[in-house]
C-alpha cells in the first residue's frame, strides 16, 4: 500500500517516472545485497556480494533504457515539443508534417485534439451558441482538450462568463503550444477550475445557458461518472431557462446499443 501511494504521489512528482524506475532498481539491488551479506558468514563471500551489488547499482542507469516513457509518445517522423508527468496523467505534445501541426497525446495513447481539429472543435462550440433562442451569457465547458472550442465560445460578445473545468493540470500547461486557441486562458471571461466535471456540477450554484462536454471515450479510465443518468440530471438542474447541453460522442467507436443508451 505504501509503495503504490509513494510511487504515485511522492516519487513521480518529485523525480519523474524514468528516475523513479532507476531509483527503485537501485533500491532492490541494495536490498538484495544486504540480504546476501546477512545470509553469508565468510568474508570472501560477503565481499563478492558487496562487489556485485556496487557494480549493479552503478549500472542501474544503463540497465533502464533511455527515453523509456517519452519514446512512446512520438514516432521517428514526429517531434515531442512538450512532455510533463503528473499524478493524474502524463501529457505530451507532438509536432509533425511539413505544416508543423501539433496534437496533444496522453499516456494511454489518446490523441484527442490539436491544431488540425479546429473545424470540428469550432463546429462543436458554435452549434449550441447558434441554436440557443436567446443570447447566451454563461457557459460551462468541461474537458479543455487544447482550448479550441473554449476559444470559440469565449469569442461571443454576449458571453460574460465561461467556467473551464479540466481534471488534468498538465493539459492546461500544454495550452501555450497550440496557437489555435488564441491564448484563451488569458481571456478575462474564462475561469479555469482543476476539478472533476461531475464534482464541479454538484458543487456550483451557478446556472448556465450552455453546457459543453468533450470528455474522452467512455472506455477511458476515470471518465465514466460523466456518462451517467445521474450526471445528466445534475447538469440539467444547472441549466438556465432555454439552456442547452451538448456533448461530443465518439460514435464511430461505440456499439449501437451504447449509442442508444446515451440518446
Tag the structure with descriptive keywords.
9 helices, 41% helix
Q: What share of residues are in beta strands? A: 15-25%
Q: Any low-confidence stretches, pLDDT <50, length ≥5? A: none
Helix content: 40-55%
Helix- and strand-based class?
A: alpha/beta
What's the N-to-C terminus distance? Answer: 41 Å
Rg estimate, integer Å: 24 Å
Strand/helix succession: HHHEEEEHEHEHEHEHEH
Count of helical regions: 9
Number of DSSP strands?
9
Mean pLDDT: 90
Strand order of the largest sheet: 7-6-5-8-9
The backbone outline, from C-alpha atoms, is elongated
Biggest beta-sheet profile: 5 strands, parallel
Short description:
The chain contains nine helices and nine strands. With 263 residues, the protein is of the alpha/beta class.
Walkthrough of the structure:
There is one protein chain. The protein is built from nine helices and nine strands. The chain has 263 residues and is an alpha/beta fold. The longest helix is centred in the N-terminal third of the chain and has 23 residues, at 17-39.
Write the layout of secondary structure elements.
Layout: H1 2-15, H2 17-39, H3 43-63, E1 78-85, E2 90-96, E3 101-106, E4 111-114, H4 118-131, E5 138-142, H5 148-154, E6 161-166, H6 169-173, E7 190-194, H7 197-203, E8 208-213, H8 229-237, E9 239-247, H9 256-262
Parallel strand pairs: 5-6, 5-8, 6-7, 8-9
Antiparallel strand pairs: 1-2, 2-3, 3-4
Helix pairs in contact: 1-2, 2-3, 4-5
